[in-house]
Structure formats: C-alpha cells, structure tokens
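haha ok so turns out i had the wrong file open the whole time. this is the CORRECT one, sorry everyone. sequence first:
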Amino acid sequence: MADAEAIKVAVRVRPLNGRERGRGDTAVVGIGQAGDVQVEIPNDKQPRCFAFDFGYGPDADQQRVHEDLGESLITNVVDGYNSCLFAYGQTGAGKSWSVTGDVRSPQQRGLLPRICEGLFARLGATDGLEESTIVCTYLEIYNEKMRDLLTPSSSTLEVRKHPALGIIVPGLAESVVTGFEGVEKLLELGNSLRTVSSTAMNAESSRSHAVFTLTVKQSLADKRQRQAQLHIVDLAGSERQKKTEARDGLRETPT
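then structure:
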C-alpha cells in the first residue's frame, strides 16, 4: 500500500470495571470525534489530546478493531512481508481480550482468531497460488524463562542464533494447521497452560508474555516460493507490583 507506515499505534480505552463503578469512579480517558485520545487533568479546563493512528472507545467492537488492524496484517503476510502485533498495557486493560477474546464466539473473537480465519479465506482466494502451508507455534516468556505452550510437559527453552535461519528456538513445537478449527484447538491448549494469577486489579491476570507465531509458506504457479511470519504478542501487565499486589504466577493445567 502506497500510504502504509512501517509502524502503526492504536489505543483502546476499556470501560470501567465493577470495582471502579462500585466506588463511583468516572472515566477520565476517552476518544474524541477525530479519534484522538482525550485525558482529563485535574484543574485543567480542557482535556489534553493525544493523536494516534487509531483510537477506540469502550463501545468499539472486535470486528471494527480487526478491520483497522487485522486486515492489513493479513495482506502483509500473504504478500510475503513479516509482521508483528504487540498488545501492551496495564493488567486488566483488555490486552488478552483484544488479542484473543472469546474464540468460540464469532462476535467476541479477538484479533488473533479473526486474523487466522481471514488468512485461510484470503489464501483460498489468491490467484496463482498452487499450495500453501500454515505452521503455528505458541511460546511463553515468564521470569526470563521460555516454555512451549503447545507441549504441557515441555522443559525450558533457549534462544539460539542460526547462521542461515537467524534467531531460532530449538525444541519449540511446530503445528501445521489446515483450517480455523486447528488454530482454535491450539489456542485453547496454549491458553490453558499460560501462567496466570490473581491481582488486586484482575481476578485472572496473565503474568507472562505470550508469542503466537504464524509461518505462511506459499508455492506460486510460476514456481516461486514465498514465506512470511506473523508474530502476535500478548505482553504481561505493565504495572507496578505494589499497586496490583501481584505475586508469583500459578500455572493452571487441565484436569
């Protein structure tokens, strides 16, 4: 795209939670008519405004976020360009909701499942494509240690630099998926193994970084090969431990 930027930044404002509503709190951050983020400051007559590429208020639905952000990532990967999406913010801000949401609900799915679903549809409709393969990995980084979220009993992994392949993680499980149902199963498995714990701000807070990677390999009719990766990163809460009363995470495994 001629008007594409290498980096785009979007801000999504969450609604007040039950604890805040119970205290009678009011929102001081909102989205203006121009899409800018407006922050009310005590003793200031006018809110301070900050411009980003995209701004979403509490009423913005998952589909709108996907149309602005997810669709461009699908286009990049299909065209052979590596891409990455980071979700950053305080615990309870809605990072995991924006990234994953409710996978089983077509209306409440987040960016990751919508991107996967759209990616299969786009590849199926691509002219001049003879064959395509999508490989998924799901990695957790917690307390400076890495674990495979697709292998329940996996040991700690390490990053290595390969002379030809670049940065790699030996031993990280790779799963080939042929449809959205396969991605759905991987997400359910990985999320059930992710490190979570309760904080003063969130009953079930993700205490680790999670990296879901899609590697798309394409064989074109003119015999060319095309490969690109999409990394979707759900970061741990960016807050002070004293404020959230967060303690060491407890890994929840399926019973």
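Residues 134 and 216 are 5 Å apart (CA to CA).
again sry for the mixup
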